[in-house]
Specification:
Largest sheet: 9 strands, antiparallel
Pfam families: Pro_isomerase, RRM_1
Strand content: 15-25%
CATH class of the largest domain: Mainly Beta
Number of helices: 10
Number of domains: 3
Radius of gyration: 26 Å
CATH architecture of the largest domain: Beta Barrel
Function: PPIases accelerate the folding of proteins. It catalyzes the cis-trans isomerization of proline imidic peptide bonds in oligopeptides.
Protein name: Peptidyl-prolyl cis-trans isomerase
Helix content: 25-40%
Main location: nucleus
Shape: elongated
GO molecular function: peptidyl-prolyl cis-trans isomerase activity
Length: 394
């Protein structure tokens, strides 16, 4: 069970410990599902120790109530904003990237601690001072470069970054919990509210970036959503990695005559260089040509030469059209098949382990190598005590 947090510093993937912290995970999942965390600021950054987020308004907004559980959000009942947090005895703050709900003591029972929406992520190992205060429900499994960027951020005396760091979007892969009454998942991420915009500090690109028009802003939004969707496919196992690029040595040929065969195309295109595979795509049931094909060359330069020389050439009385392939399905299939085979072997069925590492490494050349009324506000403990502990770890 995983959740993707898209932040202004990059993407973070959190694995949820549903077997150990079911109610905490349910609360977090449902808040992500209704996009409650969108535009929540990162704050209370203690270098090599922890940071906190999860309140849509944050500590700079005087009208902030510190955040609410999903049950308080749906009911509007202030008494349901917080709920008792359970601390599993096996879960400790040992590793960097440990994720837990921020808690405060119950007003009438100090042995009970209450959680709402805010959560804490550890930025160092052995942050055991958080044990019993941050109720662990997950672990960061991807995005440690983002944690490092947050850890290195310039902050004020209260640990608030001088340049805004925010959660932009959340995505969940699988939700095992039934939706509470009244929960409606929005069709798209809602824009930030006026109150949230009023809390904005300096944007890291504001100083040197020109003001964007509507078309540019929309393009950037689509690109962010595309990156989030690609990472979701990676998390689901449909892509070997989110930044996978189509191969540069494969041509897409369309507008073929139905009578054109694989061997015909291979013979015609082989004058440009060695061909590794040439396949006319056919209907699975009838075997009829779908009038397009993929041709894989051994050498990229041969692929480029064929692209420039064969555009609009007549083959079997049809003027063909050529483009560079944008498909990554072959790469994904090779990786996925290798992964499944290894899983079967690991399960005792005689073949292959996790990850499809062999095929992933084989195709890694296509990766982009250039590619950041309830409880009080929500601090889980006394701020001075926290700073003293953080200072001791530096």
């Amino acid at each position: 069970m995983s959740v993707l947090l898209e932040t202004t510093k990059g993407d973070i993937v959190i694995d949820l410990l549903v077997d150990y912290s079911p109610k905490l995970c349910e609360n977090f999942l449902k808040l992500c599902k209704v996009k409650y965390y969108n535009y929540s600021p990162v704050h209370s950054i203690q270098k090599s120790f922890s940071f906190q987020t999860g309140d849509p308004l944050g500590p700079l907004a005087p009208q902030s109530d510190g955040g609410s559980s999903i049950w308080g959000v749906l009911s509007g009942d202030p008494s349901r904003r917080a709920f008792p947090a359970l601390f599993h005895p096996k879960l400790k703050h040992i590793e960097r990237g440990t994720v837990g709900m921020a808690t405060v003591p119950h007003p009438s029972d100090p042995d009970v601690r209450l959680a709402a929406s805010q959560f804490i992520v550890s930025l160092g190992d052995d942050t055991d001072f958080l044990d019993g205060k941050s109720a662990i429900f997950g672990k960061v499994v991807e995005g440690f470069d983002v944690l490092e960027a947050i850890n290195s951020a310039i902050v004020d005396d209260n640990g608030y970054p001088l340049v805004d760091i925010r959660i932009l979007h959340t995505a969940i892969l699988d939700d095992p919990y039934p939706d509470p009454p009244g929960l409606v998942e929005p069709a798209a991420s809602p824009p930030p509210s006026r109150a949230q915009l009023d809390t904005a500090r300096l944007d890291e690109n504001a100083a040197d970036a020109p003001e964007e028009d509507g078309e540019t802003a929309e393009k950037m939004r689509r690109e962010r959503e595309a990156r989030a969707q690609a990472l979701t496919l990676e998390m689901m196992g449909d892509l070997p990695f989110a930044e996978v690029k189509p191969p540069e040595n494969v041509l897409f040929v369309c507008k073929l005559n139905p009578v054109t065969r694989d061997e015909d195309l291979e013979l015609i295109f082989s004058r440009f260089g060695t061909i590794l595979s040439c396949e006319v795509i056919r209907d699975r049931k009838t075997g009829d040509s779908l009038q397009y094909a993929f041709i894989e060359f051994e050498d990229k330069s041969a692929c480029e030469a064929a692209y420039f020389k064969m555009q609009d050439v007549l083959i079997d009385d049809r003027r063909i059209h050529i483009d560079f392939s944008q498909s990554v399905s072959k790469l994904s299939d090779a990786w996925r098949n290798d992964t499944n085979a290894k899983r079967q072997k690991q399960a005792g069925r005689g073949r292959g382990g996790w990850g499809g590492v062999r095929e992933l490494e084989k195709w890694r050349k296509y990766r982009n190598e250039d590619d950041d009324e309830g409880p009080s506000y929500g601090m889980v403990h006394n701020e001075e005590e926290l700073r003293e502990k953080a200072s001791a770890t530096k």
